[in-house]
Amino acid sequence: MAVYKATSSRSFFLELVLDILIFTICALICLQVFAQAHLESSRSAAQSQLGIEAVRVAELFKAGNTDTNSLAVLLEAERDGNTLSWYYSKDLDAVTKGEAFYTLTCVIDDSQVVKLAKITLSEGPLQLLEFEVSTYSLRGGGGT
Q: Between residues 140 and 17, which one has the greater pLDDT?
């Protein structure tokens, strides 16, 4: 009957294999965390860029471009009545309505003396940003 005696080299090899296994699992977890952080960073940068575009639309409206036609031509927007729309992909490329990941809309109410624009930024069905801008212009001048 043969009796096997555990050698120190066998336990060293087992410990080395377990260390490599634990290191591999930790490395995979770190890679997943970094990949998710990169995706969130890209998404946040795109949303910031579109927020800047929304402010640009608001500033042009406040500067006196309250006519839907002139604003649509100036900003190359898709016009439907008093609504201007821009459609973007995840990479912020201009796309059609059916391919849109982000949607920027500007609804202009010019029925009153004070003109109002409601600007909305959406990611699919989720609304990311919404604000209103108003402008007032005197017509015909005034006297003292």
A: 17
Beta bridge partners of 85: 78, 105
The angle formed by the CA atoms of residues 100, 101 and 107, to the nearest 5 degrees, is: 70
- Ordered by start, the domain boundaries in the chain are 9-136
Residue 121 confidence (pLDDT): 92
The span from the CA of 126 to the CA of 123, in Å, is: 5
Structure tokens at 4: 């096997």
Write out the two tokens for 140. 């015909």
116-142 residues labelled b (16+ CB within 10 A) or e (exposed): bbebbbbbeeeebeeeebebeeeeeee
